Amino acid sequence: MSSSKPQKVSLAGVVIRQRKRDVKTIANPTGFKETLSAIVEQSMAPDDVFKLCDQYEDELDFRRYDEYFWDLFLAGGTGACIGKFEDDVTPINQSFFGIEKKELPKPQELKAEIVTLLREFVRRKPFLEPTLQKVIEMLLNSSSLLEEKYQTATKSLVAHLLACRILRRECLQAMLRNEAAIESGQMLQQLTGIFKALQTECNQEVSAIVKLLNEGKIMNRLMDFFPSPKRTPEAFAEHWKKEGLQGLLVVAQNIKKKEQAQKIKNMVEEFVKRRNEEEEDYDEDDNDENDEDEEEDEAAGSKKKGKGKDSATSSSVASKRSAQQQQRVEDAVNEFLAELTELQDEVGLDGGILLSSIFEGLMLTIDWKSKKASVKAEAAAQVVRKWGPPLMKRFAEVERADDPTHGGAAQLSLMQCVQNYCYEKSPITKEFVRLVHILYMGDVIEEDVIREWSKKGVGSKGKDSFKKQIVPLIEWLDIAPEKSTGAE
């Protein structure tokens, strides 16, 4: 028996793959900053910078050192953007802190170069943009601890980043989360500085700033930046005037007025609907009581013959209940008018806007989805006749008392509002003169105002049609000896 040795297995041509191990490199943010600062010292032109970045790719890990990237260009490498501020570090020239600290010549040109380069970095490396929001929030919250020049630089860099849309508008909302800084006045000071920088350094018009604030959803919250004791219309106006930002003040006040006008419309709609519901409930209760009385009379039959219910007493009770209901309505109207007056005084809402808002609020109670135009037209006339005078008369009279020479201004605005509404709502287009007549009979609009409107107050919408409608009313005013309560 022959014994043969087993053949050895050959591994020729076989590649043995070993498992890759995670090789952790030692963090070297200092090397990153030194390399990047050396590159931008040579040139700030984007093409040159990125060409050099490609050459030093191994030393420039932008994902790992994204916070240090922003700190270098914004705070000059001082650590202010990452919560590690070093006072003894000199910021590089190619940064907002460096420009302000060293008072370099042609600062606006240097800032423009930085912004252009940063915009290109964000375009090529989008992962850098989310980090910017965090570092800006940290910088804004801690800037009060920095020296004055760095505080000025912070306001400037935020303004430039907002203007060129590198920084999200919502970042300004983060300022409202620091209640301590708000109460100390720090946040108001920063916001004011940012607005000034937007105007003077970024050449932003007031309209552009307002658009920016609306996009950031803080235009309506400017008052929240004020310390609690100063959250008043007077302090609000005084601050922006003092800081030379009257244009922003006017826009902010107009926006506030529009908000209040819309609020008044909604309040009027709710008030009228609630009162109508209460009246319906009252009528149902009254009918139920009458039905019960009739049932009692029928049940009594001949037993109460000759001793029937005293009709005078029954009428007296009904009259008393009606008077009580009327008094409740009057009390509700007076209380509601007090609320409207308070809203008017809060933002200085003029009488014209107030009267127009009340009218539009009344129109909101109408079911415009109804198929019949005649139903809508009649509903409009009824709601104006019933609620127009009690809700509008006081404010029309106040306007006349305050300014006798121009007392019809508010009423003229109301007529123009009625005209515009009738133009937009086709079912009541032909009801314009009827609605005006109702308001005239209710002492809301004066005769002189109607005549003035027909001569020079007619708006452009449906001008000829509405002017033609008003002619019969003016002819009637010419022959009518005095205002009467007769039929329309």
Secondary-structure element series: HHHHHHHHHHHHHHHHHHH
User: What's the end-to-end separation, in Å?
Assistant: 136 Å
Low-confidence stretches: 302-309, 399-406
Strand tally, please? 0
Binned, the helix content reads 55-70%
In summary, what is this structure?
By secondary structure, the chain is mostly helical.
Would you mind describing this structure in some detail?
This protein is mainly α. It folds into two domains: 29-244, Serine Threonine Protein Phosphatase 5, Tetratricopeptide repeat, CATH 1.25.40; 255-284 and 329-479, Serine Threonine Protein Phosphatase 5, Tetratricopeptide repeat (Alpha Horseshoe). The chain is 65% helix and 0% strand. It has helices at residues 29-42, 46-55, 66-75, 96-102, 107-124, 128-142, 148-163, 179-183, 186-200, 206-215, 233-242, 246-300, 311-347, 351-363, 373-402, 409-424, 432-441, 447-457, 463-479. Helix 12 (246-300) packs across helix 14 (351-363) and helix 18 (447-457) packs antiparallel against helix 19. The protein starts with 28 loop residues before the first helix and ends in a 9-residue tail after the last helix. Mean pLDDT is 83; it is low at 302-309 and 399-406.
Which structural traits does this protein have?
Serine Threonine Protein Phosphatase 5, Tetratricopeptide repeat; mainly alpha; 2 domains; single chain
What is this structure's SSE topology?
Layout: H1 29-42, H2 46-55, H3 66-75, H4 96-102, H5 107-124, H6 128-142, H7 148-163, H8 179-183, H9 186-200, H10 206-215, H11 233-242, H12 246-300, H13 311-347, H14 351-363, H15 373-402, H16 409-424, H17 432-441, H18 447-457, H19 463-479
Helix pairs in contact: 3-6, 4-7, 7-9, 10-12, 12-13, 12-14, 14-15, 14-16, 15-17, 16-18, 18-19
